[in-house]
Amino acid sequence: MESLITVILVVTLILFAGLNIFQETLDAQNDLATTWQEMEDLSGERARTQLTPISSTIKNGGATVEVILKNEGSTKLADFDRWDIFLQYYTDNSNNYEISWYPYVGTMPGSNQWTNAGIYVDAATAQAEAFEPGILNPGEEMVIQVQVAPSIGMTTTNMLTVSTEYGIQASTIITR
Question: What does the angle CA 169 – CA 173 – CA 175 come to, to the nearest 5 degrees?
Answer without folding.
Answer: 155
